[in-house]
Sequence to fold (206 residues):
Amino acid sequence: MGVLVNHLKELRKRHGLTQAHLAEAALVSRKTINTIENRVFVPSTVLALRLARVLGVSVHEIFELAEEEG
Amino acid sequence: MTTMTSTGFSRVRLGVLSATGAICLTYGVLALAWSEPDPIWPWLPIIFGVASVAIIALSARIAGSRNARIASDELFRAQWRGAVQIGYWAALALYPIFTLLLLNDVADYPTSFAAMGTLTGAAPLLAFLWLSLRQG
Fold:
């Protein structure tokens, strides 16, 4: 089926943004960004698209499905 | 000009909801422990509840609609939904628990009514606190 992998932290840092800056731009709380990066919270499609727009990347560059082992 | 950030508003909201949950839990536990339907001033839980609504509404106004919207984002909504789900099952669980207490004369009907009501109120509020702290 696949495991959700996200590269949000890596992309955010590459763009020189803090969690607070990214949160402000995406109109969510810093806590939301933190929980997404820590894989505690899976964002909605709308939020994923908003994050992609803020970072200037495609959603697939942020989120991908990795195959499960075994 | 706003004087409260979205984080500040979130903290105020969590604080007043948790305080109301704690008062309701205290009331319910004391009612059972003392076999009294009114162990402390019976208007206290509802005053805390109404005050919470007023404080949250005022804080949202001070924070401004943008910050209030940010503080009420999808993570908040997911956590609140989770809290309400926990509250639903807790409320259901109270029935068999209090049935046993009544059948074994551990509690009487007036005390059970008071305790069940306040514990039902406490459950989603304290569940929200737990989910908020657990999920960072």
